[in-house]
Amino acid sequence: MTDLSQKILLVDDDPDILELLEYNLSKEGYQIKTAENGQIGIQLAEEFLPEMILMDIMMPVMDGIEAGRIIKSHPVLKNAYLIFLTARTEEYSEIAAFDIGANDYINKPVKPRALLSRVKAVFQRNNVEKQDEAKVILEDLVINRQNYTITIKDSTWTLPKKEFDLLMFFVNNPNRVYTRDEILVNVWDRGIHVTERTVDVHIRKIREKIGQDYIRTIKGVGYLFSRN
Question: For residue 12, what pLDDT is reported?
Fold first, then answer.
């Protein structure tokens, strides 16, 4: 089933193509916005924040290459998947499209069923990549950033937020000794009064779940996390 949060922006000056693609993609459950030229496409992209943009090249007011370049330079939109749908067959048009960051280039006439298959494949691949990014695997320890769980051997634990934040601080900063005061500054919110003893208590609770091997006590200094 399509994730209803997946948003696609269609940009084309041909109303028939917009209607055809909007109908077929909406039927699959995607959220759709349409624009008839590149300038409007940029404005809608900034408001709508689509995960994917299907865009024509030859359009009035602003062509697709220029609009795509501006969209790809936007810090929030730079990871949007950009596919050009165009009747242009010249090699230089295809090169220009990929030079500005396009992910795909499809010649018209567009076959809706083939396009739907490609769109689904892109989203499925992106979902797998996001799931992979959400997990940190350290030998027998698996940390899931999405649901605050850790799995070690055959046991799974859901960590309280502060324990999870502390563990992730160590994971992201391995093989360095941190004093209790440095840990407090990096993990606990400013303005909240906690003592160095709080760090010891949280580390003890984490060790109860993941064992003693990952977080080492350096006497007289603080703690060190080893990913090996």
Answer: 96
Least confident segment among 3-12, 26-35, 99-108: 3-12
215 neighbors 224 (Cβ within 8 angstroms): yes
pLDDT tens-digit profile of 176-224?
999 999 999 888 876 567 788 899 999 999 999 999 889 999 999 999 9
Distance CA 39, CA 42 (A): 5
Domains of the chain: 7-133 (3.40.50.2300), 139-225 (1.10.10.10)
Q: Which residue has the tokens 């840990």?
A: 183
Amino acid symbol at 26: S
Q: Distance (Å, rounded) from C-alpha 67 to C-alpha 107? A: 18
List the one residue out of 227, 202, 203, 205 whose CA is nearest residue 214.
Answer: 227
Residues 64-96 pLDDT 10s: 999 999 999 998 898 899 999 988 778 888 889
